[in-house]
Batch of 2 targets.
Target 1
Amino acid sequence: MSSRHYGLDWLRIGAFGVLILYHIAMAFSPWHWVVTTGHAYTALIAPMAAVTPWRLGLLFAVSGYASATLVARAATPHAFAAERSRRLLVPLAFGMLAIVPLEMWVRVLEGGYPHGYLRFWLLDGWRVGTFYGVEFPSWEHLWFLVYLWTYSMLLAAFVATAGAARRMDRLAAWLSRGNRLLWAPIALMATIRLAALFVVPEGQGLLHDIAGHSQYLPLFALGYLVARRPALWRALHRHAAGAILLALVAGAVVVSVELQYPGDVVPPHLAMAANRAARSVMAWAMVVALFHLADRAFNSDHRWRRPLSRAVFPAYIVHHPVIVLVTWFTLPLALDPWREAALLLAATLLACAAAYGAARAWPGLGMLLGVPAPVAKGGRRPAIC
């Protein structure tokens, strides 16, 4: 477990690139978002619907894989939990104080809030309850860190229990037989999600997001299991073609439902259930296919891999508010969609590069933005997510 998987590093980098493009596209989509450009294109529904079921689940699966390396290197499960808390909760606290208020300010501006950011940050940004139609407090896009920290603590508790290794051996052996690695995770994820579909309201929130946890937690756990049990890699490669076929079929179902019931239109129960089940199928099938691709085609190093991998965390923290703020402040310019999209992409990439550069230049800021301190030549650090 001392060596890293370069292919999954590239997969993580690529997944974050998709995330940036997805959030920029949200400003032009017919779906409700923090703020929109005034241009809404139904042509974006199909590609965005095809990405939605797996884009975040893939990040949790890669994070689970990276966590296996961190657990192996930690002296004890408690040491792993302490290190993950430092790496995740410090940037979360910084983001809640310095980053999230920017987005919340734009949200209340849309509701008619009359004051500038300084007053908002000093007085109004720390409310509890509804303010100008916006619920306070909010994690905004940093909810991913909250979920990842929670799953990491659950992992630490699991590996600390007696017989954890034996249970993983038995599970890995069971999954390796036949087609179980392909259908068993899908059955678990789809069953939990459908069981809660018309019982628990869907929405983000650590304590009540049954729909999210039904997908993200199994994918995180499976990423960890694949890293610790190499036999599962052989099963992944064996089922890659089937996973691609499943992903295509499930993606077609998801896209067709979203096209037939666009925006805030609520589909009938049967269509909604088919959509949610197809999302679970696609989430795991894409992880299998992309892990296969990463291992077979991209498991090699390059001089750009390390800086890009280290830049992902600070870029994740800053990219979302940059898109929101640039969209909001360019609304009066009434830019055409191509210029607006180019401006959003350029501003986001520049902000991400600036955040990473500043984090490298000032170690204290690096700790706040999730960039690990430099290590001696020849040293290795695993991906922090």
Target 2
Amino acid sequence: MMKKKNLQMLLICGALLVTACKSKSKEEQQSGYRMEGDTVQITDRFLSEKIKVAEARLEPYSKEVITSGVVRPIPTRYACIASPFAGRVTKSYIQIGQQVNRGTPLFEISSPDFTTAQKEYFQALSSRELAKKDLKRKEDLIKNGVSSQKELEEAQNALLIADKEFENASAALEVYQVEHPENMTLGQPLVVRSPISGEIIENNIVTGQYLKDDTEPVAIVADLSEVWIAAQVKEKDIRFINAGSSLDIEVSALPGMVIKGNVYHVEEAVDEDTRSIKVLSVCDNSKKHLKLGMYTTVHFLSAPIEQIQISESALLQGEKDSYVYVQVTPDIFVRTPVKVEATKDGFAVINEGLHPGDKVISEGGYYLK
């Protein structure tokens, strides 16, 4: 009885094995390939014709780092105009949006402080002229044996002191940007001039207004033909960015438009709150598309390096990773996991998993999933 049961079990197992083999053979015939582990063998000629193979090639690739940025003025092209002293505005020469050159009059202001500086200048000028005349007279007298050497030296010292006082008085007027002070009229108002060339982007000057010496700036002149883009770059990406690197700027207000720029400076310190590094870039703004304070999307591009690239259609997605099929023989392929750096314009940049010259299935890999 026991032998009979064992014989029945063997017959059942054999039948199951034959059924499994037939099922596997039938499945293979239907799919057109045989898979063992990560190795796939194409067994059907029609399936083989559907699959295309291409080489993995080394191509130049620039790492792209995308972050946000803010439009800022370039400090040397931006000037806040404030009154140099307390006084009353007597005249305004400008209006908002006006183009000015360096030295262009902006407004006039009358002040006792400026009048005092004028008086000191004219007194120093007069004292110097008198000291020069006295020295000349002493030199003539000593030639004729009338004056003493001591009197000559005293006159020389007096002229040195007068020269120094005149230099100090002239320097005081330079603070007020007074040109040709010798042509001044005592009591005339001060003309405040633009220190740079640019556009009046803010004008709060009111004729008759009294300005204190600590008053906020009353006008702003800026040359915005070029601007800075201040961007925050994460620590892990800063190695891809260097001074002179190129970048593309996108602004939500200008969809589809790309503005070019170059990295000007990478700061040496990390912001401890955000763990990022500020990167300043110079960007052309001759068409005035970029406004101060505007938010932008910045695409930094590193210097090109050779990296393996394949068709994006060659990539297949598994449960945990991306993979491709690498050709070993015309009909045999091996599933190979890869690390993808980026995908762009129909190509995938591969960091790990492939070597230059590897042949991979570029189209039709999904038939083998």
